[in-house]
Each structure stands twice: as structure tokens, then as C-alpha cells.
Amino acid sequence: MNLSALSSFIAVTEAGSFRAAAEHLHVVQSVLSRQILALEREIGATLLTRKPRGVALTLAGEIVLRHARASLGHIDLARAEIAAVEGLRRGRVRVAAIGPVADAILPQAITAFSRSYPGVSFDVRVGNTPHVLGLLAEGLAELGVAYNAPITEGVLVRDSIDQPLVAVVRHGHPLAGDGARPLAALADWPAILPPPGSPTRLLIDEASRRANLRIPSVLLESDSVGLRVALAARTDAVAILAPLSAPAGEHVCTVAISDPLLSVGRIDLLASDVRAMSPATSAFEPVLRRFLRGHPSRP
Fold it and tell me: Which residues span the domain enclosing 180?
């Protein structure tokens, strides 16, 4: 079976359309169409339903997609093992991470790793914690970094780094200053929160319940860390985030929260417990762990 056709099939399903996949792969759309048609003829089933604004997988397509990802994953492992034999002169590291880690930690870790292994390339996917877990479960990432990751079948926690939640406020805010603040002190100000149901929001809601507090006013709920920090810098509202997400700087400062539940937040380094990591990813893991542990965990 043509590996290029399988790769194109995966690209079209992930992009949602032939046009978007062609733009991503820098090929003409007709090439992808011919490859998918040839793949459908070889398998003897329709894999994609063509729609006016994209494509949808058929039942046969879902089956082929699962096996195509597994097959290409095995090819990647084979290439990686060959690279290991050659001294890691080649290889590919696939990582999924939450945005703050991708912004603050991965550039340092990748730069340090690349000095020793310049031939190794990286595939980095960025999303929230549920998205990171999904990419690991699907085999699209070999390492994941998430915040307060729930116990998930097929995912192993390789390491956890303390990262308690803090209040993020603009400079000059009445809450700014030395010393930790009780959770009740934050309730006097509009709140900027992650979306309901997210791991961090569940922690905040449970801490509020235990403290018998009700958040009176919510200015914003969003899974965009950048938006939450930017709004905290421009208003009197209080964002609750991990220190990694909002390092103190020109526009905001962080304030410790004296709450036992919010102090147990953590950054989790994750991997699949059913798939072996490639040699390149195995070599990168301790480098990533070192930079995660070297980042400040408290304000």
C-alpha cells in the first residue's frame, strides 16, 4: 500500500478538506484527489464523503484512518530505530503541550536538544489539557505536557512538577503586594476564569465550594490563556492561573493564594503506556523534564 497515499489521506481528514490539506502540504489539490481515489480503489470502499465545504469520513474511512495512523507510526518507529543505530543523526520527536509550555519551555528545551542532535526534527501540537490527552491517545504525540491531567486510560504520568494556582492582577491592583491572599479576598473582584469543565476550572470550583464561596461576577470565561492575561492587565478583574501561564512582568503581577486545594496544582509530563517512544523522543524526555523542573513554580 502506498505510504504517500496514506499520509495524504490522514492529512485530508485532519484538515477537513482537500483544499486545506493541499495548502498545508504545498501540493496541488488534484494530486491529493488522485491519491485518495487510488487508495479507495485499492481498498474497495469509499473512504470520504465529499461535501460542499469539506469531507467527512465514512465508516470504512474511520477504520482505515485508525490503521493508517498505526502503520505510519510503525514506520516512524522503524526510522527512529535506524536513527538510533546511526547515533540519532535523524529522527522525529512528537510532542503535545498546553500553550504556556509551548511558549515558555519548549523553545529552550528544543534549542538545547538540537545542539546535540541537529538532525532530529520536531512535530509540536498545542492545545488545552483534554486536547493533549486526545493526541496521546490517538498516537499523534509521544510526549504530552498538561496541567492537572485527570487519570486517563492508556496515558501514563511520567513526572509531575508543582505548579500551584495564583491570582494574576494588573500592577497597582489593591491585591498586589507581598504575602498570600485568601481565596475569599479574590471574591470581591470580577473573575477571569478558564471554561467550565476544564481541569483548572474544576479545581477552582471545588476550592470555592469547600470555602463556602460563590464567585459573584465573572467577566470572562475562555480557554485562551493569552486573552485572560491581557484582560487582567487592562482591568481590575482577577485571573486565576498557573505561574507558568502568566510570569510577572511589565503589565501583570502574580499573587499567591492561601488555599490548600489550589496549592496542589501541577504540570504533568505524560506518555502513552501502550506505545513505545521512538529513540529520539526517549532522548528528548530528560531534557524536557529538566527545563520543566527548572521553571519557577511560585510567585
Answer: 166-264
Residue that has been written with the C-alpha cell 465529499 in this structure: 50
Q: Same domain, yes or no, for 74 and 207?
A: no
CA 22 remoteness from chain centre: 25
229-247: pLDDT as tens digits: 999 999 999 999 888 877 6
CB 266 within 8 A of CB 200: no
Residues counted in the chain:
299
Q: Is 189 helix (H, G, I), strand (E, B) or coil?
A: coil
C-alpha–C-alpha distance, residues 156 and 172, integer Å: 42
Mind listing the pLDDT tens digit for each residue in 90-147?
788 999 999 989 988 999 999 999 998 898 999 999 998 999 999 998 888 999 999 8
Sheet holding 91-97, edge to edge: 120-126, 91-97, 143-147, 266-272, 155-162
Identity of the residue numbered 29: Q
